[in-house]
Amino acid sequence: MARWPFSAEHDELRRSIRAFVESELAPHAEEWEAKEDFPDSVFTRMGELGFLGLSYPEEYGGGGGDYLCNVVLGEEMSRCGSGGVAMAVAVQTDMAVPPILKFGTEEQKQRYLVPALTGEKIFCLGITEPDAGSDVQNIQTTATKVDGGWVINGRKIFITNGRRAHAITLVAKTDRGAGHHGISLFVVDTDAPGFEVARTLHKVGMLTSDTAELTFTDMFVPEEALLGKEGEGFYNISWELQGERLIGAAGTIEGAKRMFEAALAYANERKTFGKPIGKHQVIRHALADMATEVEAAQQLVYMAAWKVNNGEYPVREISMAKLLTGEVAWKVADKALQIFGGYGYAMEFPIQRGWRDSRLIRIGGGTDEVMREIIGRMEGL
Amino acid sequence: MSAPDLFTSDHEELRRSVRAFVEKELLANAEAWEADESFPREMFRRVGELGFFGMKYPEDVGGSGPDALADAVVTEEFARCGSAGVSSSLGAHKDLACLYVYNFGTAEQHARWLSPALEGRLVGALGVTEPDAGSDVAGIMTRARRDGNDWIIDGAKTFITNGAWADFVVVAAKTDPEAGHKGITLFVVDTDTPGFEARRIRMLGWRTGNTGEISLQGVRVPDSARLGDEGSGFYAIMQNFAWERLIMALGQVAGAERTYELAKSYALDRSAFGRPVGKFQVWRHRFADMATRIEAGRALTYNALRMYSNGEDPIREVAMAKMYTSEVAFHVADECVQVHGGYGYMMEFPAQRAWRDSRLGPIGGGTSEIMKEVIGKTYGL
Predict the structure, then answer these.
(1) What is the structure's pLDDT at A75?
(2) What is the pLDDT of residue B4?
(3) What is the sign of the dihedral through the CA atoms of B133, B137, B141 and B142?
């Protein structure tokens, strides 16, 4: 029987994604980590296999599946051995592109959505700026109305896929005086004059992911670059963030499960004082705690995902899932590193990578502290 | 209460009616009963009349089921009665004493003990734990010796919920001390049998519960009081652990939720430095953490319940749920005391009671350490 909330069809999809991840991604993890990069062909290959469009409508080249298909993809990508690859793909499938389906015109869908699902157009999402992250209202990038379009000026930072992207889903201020009513979304080709990749950022983890700082200098975009209605960008990006956080949570907690499994296997193998370390009670209990926290956080993810799948908009549960999975994953990664002892600390073993990679989820997509603000306010506090 | 994919509208209707009863007839009396350190024994009769003991049992023994999910609803609502001694007494009767007689009893035993117990005309208890053996069931010392067609039972039981006022106790005794866990047999002992004595134990919390220490000296019972086959007691106990722990987890989540509400309502009511305590960011975040953990505990427990009601035997998931939720419940209760400040420490406020009552969660029904042993074992550790 399939594990709730999944069906037999989801399990079948899971098997095919897993086969791909294990044969075409995981074997390259070490090489890509060393290069701090991975080839763009990952996107086209995944597009070819239909994995970039699982839940998108068939008329645009998607698979017509439900939301839980995305969860399956997010979970299985945790087996690729490189958090940066999984994140780059999630930005495409569940962050930068969903607003085009949800808010885009038919023309925008044909121009951007169709090639996004084949992997020919790689996307990035431009929200965060040097001085504004979750505080979206305070962004400084401006889009000024001119004849025939808009002129955009500003700067975005920590942009996943920023260097390799062909297009960006961009948040900009269209009315400085209107607060959060003055924000709009745009979809822009990165070959627009004035678009520049200022630099690639070096990070402590997620090494294969290209993370860029982007600048826009008098970047002209035509009228049809506006995505959704003018002034509704704040609400539309708040909607996007729910999908971003939930897919992040789903992938993160499945990644934590991989870390637990690695620690469990090692605990059964490695002997000290005449028995496997897992047979020492303290390690057995540490593993029991790890397994319990992973299971609790994963069930919270599934509860939220089930609601999304049923057409609900569970901001509270999504925020909780994002918060808890981040904390649990980080804690589990650290305990796993401890169980591996000296090998955990050695760069030639993958545990340190999981430890470094898993630290990001507590920051990216809204920090733990931002999640608590959202939850606390929804609780009336 | 959010219950994805689990409860039906009939269950929710049942929930409303149990909740109305709990609020009107239990919660309203909680303070008075706590002061008395007991509650009226007639409450068993009242609950029996309302049919709330019988959800899990089929009609031919006097129940209205079998419907484990309906029983879960009753358990959740009982946990909101404001006095863990009351909810645990009703629960130990319904889920321990009655369940053993139902699962392992003959039709005659059902007629003699179960049916009147479901009506609340008899109060039941389960006697496994002894002064020197708890979860280590194979280590019990109570002996039952054959004497013609009868059995003579000698020994002691302790921490027995309802033990001080029960009409019958399901007693685990060694019938073959050489056979280890294969030498344990269950008996139903009427508490008016000569040689049976009980005294109440005063406890830190659960004060309204009539928890007892039992002494059995030359207690003679007929062979018709034997529950199940000779030597089957250990397996019977193991078999019932899943439901027993699942029920505890359900109660912990519901109880924690009520304690959380108590804490939040005080935090919004009480002002310091010009605003409600709950509007300070630190408290808003601490409430967000509490709410997140309660929700994760619920998701974890509901998944175990879903597996159980699908006929699976979720040993691991149940142990995880019991451990996780009882620790969350105590954490929430401790935060509840903290947010109340000085009032939290005062006996006239209910915060301290939630705190004392919830401290038993990580001990009763198998400690958290035992749960970790159980979980570790499922991973081969």
Answers:
(1) 98
(2) 63
(3) positive
pLDDT, one tens digit per residue, over A181-238 is 999 999 999 999 999 999 999 999 999 999 999 999 999 999 999 999 999 999 999 9
Distance from CA of A51 to the nearest CA of B (A): 27
* Shortest alpha-carbon distance between residue B292 and chain A (Å): 5
Q: B9-123 in CATH: which number?
A: 1.10.540.10
pLDDT above 50 for B251? yes
**Interface contact flag, A381 B267, Cβ < 8 Å:** yes
**Residue boundaries of the structural domains of chain A:** 8-122, 124-231, 235-378
DSSP B93: I
B232 token code pair: 């089957």
B311 contact A CB<8A? no
Query: How far is Cα A99 from Cα A79, in angstroms, rounded to an integer?
Result: 27
Whether pLDDT at B37 is above 90: yes
What are the domain boundaries of chain B? 9-123, 126-231, 234-378
Tell me if residue B196 falls in helix, strand or coil: strand
* Identity at B195, one-letter amino acid code: G
CATH number for the region B126-231 comes to 2.40.110.10
The ranges of chain A with pLDDT < 50 are none
Mean pLDDT, residues B60-75 taken together: 96
Buried b (16+ CB within 10 A) or exposed e, B110-125: bebbbbbbbbbebbbb
User: What is the rounded distance in angstroms from the CA atom of residue B26 to the CA atom of residue A136?
Assistant: 49
Q: Which CATH superfamily is domain B234-378 in?
A: Butyryl-CoA Dehydrogenase, subunit A, domain 3 (1.20.140.10)
Tell me the average pLDDT across B25-41.
97
Q: Which of A280, A372, A377 is the best mutation test for B, with the most CBs of B within 10 A?
A: A372
Which tens digit of pLDDT belongs to each residue from B257-278? Answer: 999 999 999 999 999 999 999 9
Contact B302, A299 (CB under 8 A): yes
As a whole number of Å, the CA-based R_g of chain B is 21
CATH architecture of the domain covering A124-231:
Beta Barrel (2.40)
CATH architecture of A235-378: Up-down Bundle (1.20)
Whole-prediction pTM:
0.94
A269 is catalytic: no
pLDDT for A79 = 97
DSSP A237-292: HHHHHHHHHHHHHHHHHHHHHHHHHHHHHHHHH-EETTEEGGGSHHHHHHHHHHHH
* Contact at CB, A288 and B4, closer than 8 angstroms: no
- Chains A and B form CB pairs within 8 A to the count of 131
Tokens of A201: 């950022």
Say whether the ipTM exceeds 0.90: yes
Residue B1 has what pLDDT? 41
Catalytic residue among A244, A254, A293, A317: A244
The pair of structure tokens assigned to A100 is: 């085009």
d(CA B191, CA B210) in angstroms, rounded, equals 14
Residue B3 has a pLDDT of: 58
Give the nearest chain A residue to B297 (CA atoms). Answer: A296
